[in-house]
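so the lab meeting is tmrw and i was supposed to have these ready like two days ago... anyway. pasting both below. for each one the top line is the aa sequence and the line under it is the C-alpha cells. i havent really looked at them closely yet so no promises
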Amino acid sequence: MTVWKTSRRNFFAHKGRMALSAVAVLLSVAFVCGTLVFTDTMNTTFDKLFAATAADVTVVPKAPEKDDRLPGNGKPVTVPASAVGRAAEATGAKAAEGVVSSASVTVVDRHDKNMGSTSGGPTIAGNWTRNALRSMELSSGHAPRGPTEVMVDADTADKHHLKLGDELRTITANGDIEARISGIATFKVTNPGAAVVYFDTATAQTKLLGGPDVFSAVSVTAEAGVSDEQLKKNVATALGDTSAYELRTQEESAASSKDSMGSFLDVMKYAMLGFAGIALLVGIFLIVNTFSMLVAQRTREIGLMRAIGSSRKQVNRSVLIEALFLGVVGSLLGVGAGVGLAVGLMKLMGAMGMELSTEDLTVAWTTPVVGLVLGIVVTVVAAYLPARRAGKVSPMAALRDAGTPADGRAGRVRAAIGLVLTLAGGAALLAATRADKASEGSPLLGAGVLFTLIGFIAIGPLLASFVVRVLSAVMLRMFGPVGRLAERNALRNPRRTGATGAALMVGLALVACLSVVGSSMVASATEELDKSVGADFIVQPAGGDGALIVDQAAKALKTVPDIEHLTEYKVVGARLTAPDGTTENEGLVAADPTYKDDVRRETVSGELAAAYGKDAMSVGETYATKHRVKVGDRMTVAFEGGETAKLKVAAITSDDVNIDKGAMYVNITTAARYVPADTLPQNMIMFAKATDGKEKEAYAALKSALAKYPQYEVKNQADFKEQLQDQIGRLLNIVYGLLALAIIVAVLGVVNTLALSVVERTREIGLMRAIGLSRRQLRRMIRLESVVIAVFGALLGLGLGMGWGTAAQKLLALEGLGVLEIPWPTILTVFVASAFVGLFAALVPAFRAGRMNVLNAIATD
C-alpha cells in the first residue's frame, strides 16, 4: 500500500510534467480508437443498407468464368424474364418480380452536368419495384409511368437542387434516355453516397439491359412462416435447371454485397492503424525520456527511500505504477477523443459527398478495451528501462547531488548492437537494389528499413555526440557564449538528445522516403510518356475509374474536324492456345492500325505493322519466351462471345515498357470479324492525332464533341502529366497529413524534454542568472538547444528516408520505374521547417525559464 501511496503522490506532484506524455498517449490511442469506430460505423451503415435492399431470396445470373483483368462490354449479364413466373410458382413464394439494375450509367441534367455522386460512389439505374420499398419510400410525385419519366433519390435531388419536372438524360451502353423527374424517393436507411434513378420496367429493360425479355435478377418474397432457406430450396425446385443461376437468401445477398466493399474498408482501416502505430512508436520515445528525466531529478529522493528500507523492487514498482497511472489517464482520454475523431471523420466524409449518419455510430465493446490495453501496455513498457535504472540508485545517493548511475557498459553494448543492425540493414538495402525480381527484393527492402531504423535509434546517442558538435560549429558558434552553452546542454546527455531526435526522425524518414518514391514515379512516367506516346490527345473516362466509352460518345468523336486519325482501343477476352499446346485466358488489344503510331512499341522480332494485317496478331516477349512462340507461328484464339480463329504471330513486342506491358495486339477489324457487334466490347480509351498546325483547334473540337458526355475527358500530353502529378501529390498529401500525427507527438517530446531539462537545471539556471546571464540570453540558449536537437533529428530522418526511397526506387525500376529523382525542394523545406519546429517547441520552456526567481532557483535543492 505504501508503494501505491508513494506512486500516487509522485504522479500528482509531477502532473504538469506528465501532461505532455499523457497527450502523446491520448493522440495515439485516439487515432486507433477513432479508426476502429469509423470503420465499424461504415460497416454498420453498409450492413443496414444491404440488408434493407436484399429480397428474401434473390435469383441472379451465374457470372461466366473470365479473367478479372478484362473489362466487360458495359452490358450486365441477365436472367430470362420467364424465370420470374417460375419463381413465383415456388411453394412458399408470396410474390416474385423482375429487377433491373445497372451501374454502367451516367446521369446528366439539361446543362450536361453530371448528377452522380461527388464522393466517388456509384450511379445506379433500375426499375421501381416492390422490393425497392424495403429501403425507400416515395416522398413526392409518382413513380415513372413511361419512357419519358424518371424518379431520383432525395439525396441526389438535394445535392444538385433537382425538383419535379426537371429534365435528366441517362447515358447507357444502349443509348440515351431523356426523361423528366416524376417523383422523388427517400432512403429509409442511410445512403452512403450512391446516386439512384428509377425508370418504368419496360424502359429499364430495353435501355439498361438491351432487351425486353431479360432482367438483372429476380426478387422473391416469402409467405409468412416460410424461412429464407426453405424458400431458396423451393425456388430452386421451381426453376428446374439452376446451372445458369445463383440463388441467395437475404443474409447471403447482404454478405455478398459486403464482401465487395470489404477490401476497400480493410485497406483504409489498416492504413490508418499503421499510421497510429507510427505515432505510438514515436510516443514511446517521449515516455522513455519523461521517466528517465523524472528518475534523474528524484535521485536523492529515491536514495532516501532506499536508505530507509525500500527495496529495489519497490522503487522499480513505484515508477511502473506511475506509468500505469499515466497510461490509464491518457488511454481513457484517448478513447473519448477517438469517438470524437470518428465523428469528425464522418462529418468530413459528409462534406465530400459520402453520407454517414451519427445515428449509426458504432462503438464496439472491443474498441475501448483495445485502446486501454494498448495505451497502458505501451506506457508501462516504455517506462520499464527508466524504472530499472531507478532501482539501481544506491542509498548513498541521498548524501550527494548526483543523477542516476551511468551505465557505461550498457551504453557500449547498445552502440555495438546499433552499429551491427545498421550495417545489416544497409547490406539488406544494397542487396534489394541488386535483386533480379521485385518479389525477391521486397523482403530485403523491408528488412533493410526495419534494421536501419532500429539501428539508428540504438546509435542515436553515439551519433548525437558527433552530429551535434558539427551542427553547433555551423549554427551555434556565431551566437558566442550563449551558443556554446546551448551546445553543452545538448551534449550533456547524449542518450536523451538521441531519443528526442529519434522521435522526430521516424516521421521525417517516412516523409523523405515517400517523397523520393513519389517524385521518381512521376519522373519515370513522364519520361515513358515522352518516349512512347505519339498521340496528341487521349480520351478516357474521367478519373480513370475503369468505365468504358459508350458508342454514342465514340461516334461523336469521329465527327470532329482537324483530326488526322482517331484510334479506337478495345480489350477483347479470348482463350489462347499456343503452339506448345498450353491454353490460357488473355485479353487481346483490338485497335486500329494507327495505334502503332499513337503508342510506340519496340519489337524483338517481326514488324508491328504486320500484326494489324488480316488474321494476324502480336504477342509479348515474356509470353513468347514462356511458350516458345516465334514469328510465323499460328495461335488458336477462341474469342469470348464469338468464334474461334487461327491467327498468325507477326511480331513479338519488347516488354521493357510501362505502357501496355505484355499486351497482344490485333486489328480491330479482325476482332469484329469473329465477335458479334453486340458482344464486341466498348472502347477503354481512344487516341487522336491532330492535323499539322491544327492542334489547338482539334483540342477545342474534341472537348466540344464530349460536352454532352461529362464522364469522359480529353487530355493532351501536358494535361496527362499534370494529372499524374496531381494524383500522386494528393496521395502523398494524405500520407503526410496522417504522418503529421507522429510529428506532432515528436514535437511534444522536444517540448517535454526541454521543460523537464529546465526543471532539472533550476539551480544551474539561477546561478547563471546571478552571474549576469540576462533573461533574453537564457531564452535564446534554450531555443538554440531546441533547434539543434530538432535539426539533428531532421538530418537523421531525411538521410535515412532518402536511403530507403533510393533503395525502393531501384527495386521499382524492375517494374519499369527507372528514373530516380530526389525532390530537393521538399527535402530542404522539411529541413528548414524542422528548425522552426525547434523554435516553436522551445517557446513555453524558454518563457518559464526566463520567469524564474533567481534567489529561489539558487536555493533549490
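ok protien two:
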Amino acid sequence: MRVQLSLANVIIPIAILVFAIGFFPYKPFLQGLATFEDDDYGAPPEAPFDKIIFMVVDALRSVKKVLAKVEVCSLISSGAAIPFTAHATSPTITMPRVKAITTGSVPSFLDVILNFAESDTTSTLAHQDTWLAQMKAKGNGIQVMYGDDTWLKLFPDTFGRSDGTTSFFVSIWSQDFTEVDNNVTRHIPDELRNDDWNAMVMHYLGLDHIGHKAGPRSPNMIPKQREMDSIVQTIYEAIETEKHLESVCLVLCGDHGMNDAGNHGGSSPGETSPALVFISPKLRNITEGVLCPVDGSSDDLQYYTTVEQSDVAPTLAGLLGIPVPKNNLGVFIRQFLGFWKAADSIQLLQRNALQLRRIAEATYGTSLDEPSTPISCSTASSDVEELACLWKRASDLTQIQPGSPQSGSEAAIDALLKFCHRAQNMLSGTASNYNLTALSIGIALAAVAAGLAAYACLPLLLNSVTFSIGFSAICLGYGIMMFASSYVEEEQHFWYWTSSAWMAYLFFQRLRCSRGTTASALSALVVLGGLRITRRWNQTGQKYAGEPDIVREISKHNYLLWSAVFLTYLDLMRRLLRRAYQRLPARLRSIMAITLCFAAFMFKLSFTEADAPELLSGIRVDLLSKLHNSSLVTQARSVFLGVGLSILYTALYERSARTMNIKNYTNSAGQVFHDLITLFLITQSRVTNIPLFLVFESQINLLDSLELSPFEITITSLLFQYVSFFAFGGTNAISSVDLSNAYNGVSGYNIVGVGVLTFVSNWTGPIWWMSAGILLLRSHAAARAGRSAAPIQRGGFPGRESEPSDGKKAIWSSHIALLSMFTTISLLSVMVACAALRTHLFIWTVFSPKYLYAMAWSIANHILINILCGSLLFWSN
C-alpha cells in the first residue's frame, strides 16, 4: 500500500503542472512597435490631442452617476465628457486589466497567478507594443506615473518620474483608504504646471481597499467617490485654463469593478462593468452630452454604451495620432469619429482593420484575400470564410473618390466596423491556444494517480460495503458535479448536505449499534446542529453572496460579537493552562499561557481598531491606548514567536521526558500542538469568524465521544475540512481570496511569507480539521492499543511505546489512502471537465478558477497539510 500511495502522491503535482502548461499557455506576442510605414494609407489624419492624463480608480464600476459628486455628471451632461461602460473580461484583477487597456489584447488567465507575485517580472510589457510605448517613441515628452506600482513592474524604464505604491500591503486598511491615494494626489499640482510630459498615469487604490473591507455600500465609499470627483474637477479646470494643457485628453476609468461583497476576480456584472469616461472641452465639438445621472435601474450595470475594455487602446491611438499597438484586438470607438472628415475616419478604421486582419491571418494561417467571396456573407461555411467575406466587402466600399456621397462613406464605416468587431470576437475567443497533448498527458497522469490510490484503498473498501458505498458516492458525486458550472459556483451546498447526511447516518447507526448508546447518538445529533450554525455563518457562493447571514447579524451587535470572541480565547487559554509547558513551575506555566493568549487577543483588538473600527463602536478598551506605540507588525510577530517557541518547547520536552523516563508524565503533545495551532489560526482569521472555533471545539469533543472508527474519522475529517472552508467565506471564485491577514507580522512584500499567510488565512478551517482529525486518530490508536485514553477535553494520550507499531501504521496508511483517493479522483474530474468544456462560455469565469483551487487543494492542503503536517502531528511523541 505504501508504495502505491507514495507514487500516487508524487504524480499529483506532476500531473497538475503538465495540465496547467497546456491549459494556461503563455500566449506569444508580436514584438516591436507598429509604425505608420507598415501600411499604404499615407500620412495619418491630424490628432485632436497630443497629451493624455490616464486616471485609473481601482475597482470603479459603472454606476448611474459614475461618481458620487456632481462634477463628472455635469461634464457628461454638458458634452465635455463621454461616458461608457467598459466590459472587462475575466479575470477581473488589476494586472490582466492593465494589460488589456494598454495593449488592446486579451490577457492570459496565467496572469491571475502573476498578479499576486508582485516581484514577478515575466509578465512585463517592456517588449510589447502599447500606447504608452508609442507615446514614448513619439518623443514629444516623458511619461510619469503615480499610484499602484503594478505599472512600474509592467513598464520598466518607461516613466521619467514615478512614485509607486504597493497594491497588496493592506495591513492597516483605514490608512489605505486615504494615505495611498494622498500619495498620488500630492503630485498633481506640480505635474499640471509641468509641460515636459505627454502621458501621465495615476492609479488610485483607496476605493478598491474600501470595497474589499466593507463592500460597495460602505459609509466610506461616498467620501472616497467625492474625493475622486474633486480630483477630476481640479484636472479639468487646469485643462481649461492652462495653455500647455489645452490638447490634453483626460481618461477616467476603473480597471475592473466589484461585486456586492466588495471583491473582484470573477464574472458578475459588478466585476465586469468598470466605468470609462473620456473628458475634454474639445468633446463638445462632437457631442451634445447625455443624461447624467441616468433614469431607472440596471441589474447588469449597463448604464451607458458598452464597449470592450480592449477598445481603449486603438481609440487612444487615433485620438493621440500614434499607431495602433501590434497585438491589439480592440476596435476604435465610433463616437469619436466626429473629430474627422469621412475620408480620415475611414483611414483610421482601415488601419485598425488591417492590424486585426494581420493577427487573424497569423492565427488561422490563411490569407483573407485568397477566397473569391460574394458581397453577401450569409452563405459562408466557416468563421474564416465569413471574415474574408467581410474584409472583401469593406475593401470594396472603402474605394472612396472625391465627391462621394455621405451615405457611401457611412456604408464604408459600417462595413469596416463590422469586420473589426467580428474579427475581435473571433480572435478573443481563440486567445488561448490549448496544448491538447499536454492536457492529455496531464489527465493520463492524474488517472494513473487515481488508479494507484484506488488500488491502495481496495482492501479497505472491501472490508465494509456500507462505508465503501458512502465514500464512493462522495467521490463520484463530487466528480460529476464538476461538469456543471452552476454546481461549481455553489459547491458549498454539496458539502453542507453531504456532511449533514453523514452525521444523520452516524446518529441512526449509533442508535442501532450494540456498542452505541443513546448519549453517543445524541452527540451526533448535536454535531449536526453545529453544522447548521456553521453553514449559516457566512453566506457564500455566487448566487447569494452578500445576502444576510450570521456574520452580518452579529456584526450589528458588537458586545455579542466580542463576548463570543473573548469566550473563544478564554476556552483556548483554559486548555493551554491544563496541558502546556509541563515540567515548569505551576505559576510560570500559568503566566506563559495567559501572556500568550492575552497578547494574541490584544493583537486582534488592535488590528480590528485599525481595520474595522466600526466593530469596536461603543466598546471602551483602554488597554489599546497603551499599545499604540507598538506596531501591528511587532504585535503579530510577538504572537507568532510565542506560538513557535511553545511548539518547540513542547517537542523538546516530550523527547526528553521519554528519554529520561520522567515520572507522572502524561503524553499530551498532540493536544498541545493542536491548541497552539488553533491560536495561530485564530490570529490569521477575520475577527467575525473567530467564534466558529468555539463551535468546532464543541464538535470535536462530541465526535470523540462517538468512538469513531478510523474509516469514520477520515470521512468526517474530509467532509468538515471542505465545510469549514466555505463556512469561513471561501468560494471557487478568485474574488473570495482574503488578503486581510496576509501581512500579519510582515513589514513589506515578501512572496514566500505573504503566500504562506494568504494560504493559511484562506484555509484556516481545513487546517484546523486536519489537526482535529489527527487527534481522533491518535485517540483511536490509543484505545486500540489497550490503554484507556482520556477524552480530548481532559487531555493525555498514552505514549507510542505502548502501542503496537503495525496497528498505528495501518491506521495512518488507511487515512492517507482514503484522502489520496478522493484527492486524485476530484483532481481528475476537474481536469477532464476543464478539457471537455474548454470551449464553454464559462471556461474562464468558472472552470479555470476552479482548476486553480483544485491545485491548492491537491498540493497545499492534501500533500503539505494532510500528509506532511498530519504525519508530524500523528507521530509526534
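from a quick look at the 2nd one: Residues 258 and 657 are 56 Å apart (CA to CA). Residues 805-836 form the longest helix (32 residues). will dig more after coffe
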